[in-house]
Amino acid sequence: MSRHAPGASPRGRRLDPTHAPHRAFTLIELLVVIAIISILAAILFPVFSKVRENARRASCQSNLKQIGLACAQYTQDFDESIMPVEVSAGTSGDYVTWWGTEDSTYHYHMDAGHGLLQPFMKSAQVQSCPSFDSSISTDKGLTGYGYNSDYLSPFATTANGTCAATDAYKDCVDAAGNSTTRTVILAQIDAPSKTVQMADSAQRDFTTGKLSADPFLSAPNDYFPSIHARHNGTANVLWLDGHVKAMRVLYHSGTFGPYGYQASDYTALNLGDLDEDGNFDTNELFNGTGKP
Question: Is residue 20 part of a domain?
């Protein structure tokens, strides 16, 4: 029989299990924990980034829907005429555009609060995509989006009609010497649901090679990719019937276009085209017919 009381040590001290000595982590154990945390971070951070971008994409889609409603109100108020990309402000070099008023007398200052759509939107911020840094092109105002001006507001030339006056390039001009556009009536569009009105846009700056704002969309056969897939590889597109959809863009490969552009310069910036038949020489999603 033991001579020691239960719970007592051989020297007579009672052992308290709640005050047992603590063992510190070894270096190897700490390294394993750090490695696990690093792996989890590498897995989760891209997921969090995609979630944030999806939220910005949803906000961008909301912007485009509001712009689409404003465009529809403009068309209704102007006898079914589709909004022009710009109209002359009456002074040489000055225009009222869909994204603001341009004042060439003040270093091409852009007043985003007085564009063609502002009477219907009351907010210039709607024109700014949350995933695009508008500050990189301050002369163009808040322009995260581009307009299908090639088909919905073509510039008037002697090639597509008669002109009261022309410039050296045979473009029609008004009394102030500003370029003019041809009016397009909504009834002229055969397939509004398959006609791009606006989309996430940008252009490659030939001087810096970086992105800059582009309020004009280029159709595929312009060979100047301007659709910007800034939302997890997709671009938000406003169609003429008012619906908005995220679309995958098509990229060129090798050397393309009459000026020999390098496709890699554009794919690196996520700049591509919208096309349905895989033929960049056709503009079925821009020309209003839904057909090549």
Answer: no
Name the pTM for this structure.
0.80
Q: Which two tokens stand for residue 172?
A: 């029609």
Q: Does some domain include residue 204?
A: yes
* 199 belongs to a structural domain: yes
- 10 Å CB burial of residue 7 (0-12, 13-18, 19+) is exposed
DSSP E strand stretches across 28-138:
86-88, 95-97, 100-103, 109-111
Query: How many beta carbons lie within 10 A of that of residue 186, not counting itself?
Result: 16
Rounded Cα distance between 142 and 196, Å, is 20
Of 196, 280, 183, 288, give the one whose Cα is nearest residue 242.
196
279 within a domain of the structure (yes/no): no
10 Å Cβ neighbour count for 276?
Answer: 14
Query: What 3-state DSSP class applies to 256?
Result: strand
pLDDT by residue, tens only, the chain of 292 residues: 445 455 444 454 554 555 556 666 788 888 888 888 888 888 877 766 777 878 999 999 999 999 999 999 999 999 999 999 999 888 877 889 998 888 766 556 778 888 999 999 888 889 889 999 866 665 566 678 999 999 999 999 888 788 888 888 888 999 888 889 999 999 999 999 999 999 999 999 888 888 888 899 999 999 999 999 999 999 999 999 999 999 999 999 999 999 899 999 999 999 999 999 989 999 999 999 999 9
